[in-house]
Amino acid sequence: MQSSDYKKRLKLQLIIILSIAVMSCGVPSVPTSLSSLLERESIRVGTVYGAGTFYNGAEGPQGFEYELLAGFADYLGVTLDLYPFYSYEVMLEQLEEGNLDIVATGDAVTDSLKKRFAYGPAYQHVEQELIFQAGTNRPRDLADLDAPIVAVSGSSQAYLLTDIFDELNESGKVIKTNLMTTEDSDSEELLQQVANGDIAYTVADSNRLALQRRRYPNLAVAKTLDEKMPMAWALPMNQDDSVKAALIEYFGTVHQSGWFTVLEDKYFGHIRQFDYVDSRAFNYAAETSLAEYKPLFQKYAGELDWRLLAAMSYQESHWDSEAISRTGVRGLMMLTLDTASDWNVDDRTDPEQSIRGGSRYFASLLNRIPARISDPDRTWMAMASYNIGMGHLEDARVLTERQGGNPDLWVDVKRRLPQLRQKKYYRTTRYGYARGDEALQYVENIRRYYDSLVWLDEQGKI
């Protein structure tokens, strides 16, 4: 009862604060769209399924947009009622009719959409890219296209292309291509269709492209159509600004606290850099070489995800049991002589011994990470220590704290790892010089490989 009363008082305070803000803009404060939402004790949000928006994973609802939305609902003290739509246009119509409070699709804001809807603050900016299949002729301009550009009906890409084509037609420029819209495929499927050669072109924002390129490395950028489009949540045009004011407060809070940066790193931090050759080689190896060692990874993973262990092994040795580095480490898990001895590995080139020893060693590193550090941060830190040693990881954490960062957050610690090879920093540390930039790349590579293995496993390809 006391908890319920406390929550109601918090809501009342929020209504008062935001109503004052709205009144300063000359908008009547009572009743407001925010007070109605709080009285209802729920927020109704329209979204679309996608790797970067919302999906039901093994551990429940996931997605960048979903986590932001769940955070906003918690911020207001209300229930999140999420409605995934299969049609952008139907969803936008529901927002216009007042059946939704917000639409959050991870989609960009175009000039045409701003004429129909109000928007909260921009929380990211993306590029809109014209995509074609690598290995085919690269078009340098829209005038060079000889096939339609396919986009999802009602998406920002469809609106952007419509505006571009209208401008080209008004200028009298002759173009052979045209826009073809569809509701039968989402933007991720269209990227897959380009990769498979089923369609010639589509347009995608840089976030979705980064997510899909790890799966389909033959996706290539022909031309950037817009270099900086804002991403924001849509609101009904005809309502007052109270919900918008709450969104401004919320995004200000999550940015100031650092949580937004952590969330952005979780979904996009490790995939922004793309290596075409490496991605193709990894996917090929996963489908051809991994099967030989998969039972061993599963056998010795323990509490770890065997796919994470396999991703580490690929980064270490490319699943070559005879691999040897310039420093003398050997085998699938690239164990040193000392580490092999510590974990009873007699033959580092024996696949089973190497995987068993590497798994147990990594588990021991995880146990040495302070218990207050939660996953996935503790996993990425343990992984970095597998590469450069626990002492150097602790040096990076100390540097992080000295510089005002949070030593328990990977997103902060990883920024200091490269400093371990800079004299002005490593001369102040306990363990001195280390190739921290390599440790950072090591972890980011494994994260990409792991994501790819999860997807390939879900597709039944490994």
Protein described:
- It is a single chain.
- The protein is of the alpha/beta class.
- The chain has three domains: 2-120 and 233-268, 3-Layer(aba) Sandwich (D-Maltodextrin-Binding Protein, domain 2); 125-230, D-Maltodextrin-Binding Protein, domain 2 (3-Layer(aba) Sandwich); 276-458, Lysozyme (Orthogonal Bundle), CATH 1.10.530.
- 50% of the residues lie in helices and 14% in strands.
- A five-stranded mixed sheet has the order 9-8-10-7-11, with helices on both faces. A three-stranded parallel sheet has the order 4-1-5, with helices on both faces. Strands 2-3 form a two-stranded antiparallel sheet.
- Helix 16 crosses helix 17.
- The relative contact order is 0.09.
- Mean pLDDT is 88; it is low at 1-11.
Name the structural class. alpha/beta
Strand content: 5-15%
Mind telling me the CATH class of the largest domain?
Mainly Alpha
As an assembly, this protein is single chain
User: Any idea what the CATH architecture of the largest domain is?
Assistant: Orthogonal Bundle
Regions with pLDDT < 50 over 5+ consecutive residues? Answer: 1-11
Radius of gyration: 25 Å
Number of E-state strands: 12
Helix content: 40-55%
- The total count of helices amounts to 20
Based on Cα principal axes, name the global outline.
globular
Side by side, the strands of the main sheet go 9-8-10-7-11
**What is the end-to-end distance?**
52 Å
Number of domains: 3
**Major sheet description:** 5 strands, mixed
Average predicted confidence as pLDDT: 88
In the CATH hierarchy, the third-tier topology of the largest domain is known as: Lysozyme
